[in-house]
Known about the structure:
Elements: H1 6-16, H2 20-29, H3 34-52, E1 59-66, E2 72-80, H4 83-86, H5 89-105, E3 117-118, E4 121-122, H6 123-134, E5 139-147, E6 151-157, E7 163-170, H7 180-196, H8 208-224, H9 232-247, H10 262-273, E8 278-286, H11 291-296
Antiparallel strand pairs: 1-2, 2-5, 3-4, 6-7, 7-8
Amino acid sequence: MATISAALVKQLRDATDASMGECKKALTECDGDLKKAAEYLQIKGIAKAAKRGARKTSEGYIGRYTTADGKGAALIEVSCETDFVARTDNFKNFCNDLARDLYEINPATDANLLDLDINGEKLEVKRGNLSASTGENIRIGRFVRMTVDNGLIGTYRHHDGKGAVAVKVACEKAETATNDAFKDFCSEVVLHVFACNPIAVSKNDIDPAAVADQRNVCRQKAAESGKPEAMLDKIAEGMLNKWYADVALLNQMWQGDGKESAEVKLNQCAKAVNDKLSIVCFSRIMIGEGVAEEEGSEE
């Protein structure tokens, strides 16, 4: 049997992030073969992660990556069990590196992320190794990737890493993307989306079925108020417009001052940079949203 030195154990630990005890056991099982021991830990790590799969993952961190020119960005949700793990540099680095790698891979929308090969290793194996090193259930969640030809992708991650936003703001002139006023608007609109949590860019982008349901609710409330039948539709439409102001980004009051709508702010910026601007889309990810439903459905 090969002699398992402390240096060899440390080398395996540095490569896998597994505990010293696990590394020594793996090397003993594999007769001192470093490569086989690493593979052994990968397999064991995945097995351990599977046993932890039933545990709730309500903590975590949003990995973020933005290209140097600001025309591309990615967000990835990685959940764990405790805030203690979520705040470690090792966990944060894993999340940010994963956001960068997934941005570069650009997987199909319906791709199973865990099946992807990242730098010669499946993401499922990387997840299993992280689970083994932290002792917690790790879940890879929602992934967002945005690019724009003319414009910028604004991003924001909250200070605790538990929430993040990406917004695509397009322009027509290439030089507008370097304009400070345009950059400032992109930086501000992500803060607005994070704070105000809209469900669509404009009221025209909201699911018609959701609008129909809300209109019915508004009409029912108007009827319950005792107003004449002939006035109900008009009252309901007024209530519906107030709802749009709550849920549609362009209709919302700007979070910075609350005096003008986001659409007015967009138009003001367009005038300042002398260009046509548009907010194309946005994505807002919060750790823990839907965890109970998603994890419960796996049982």
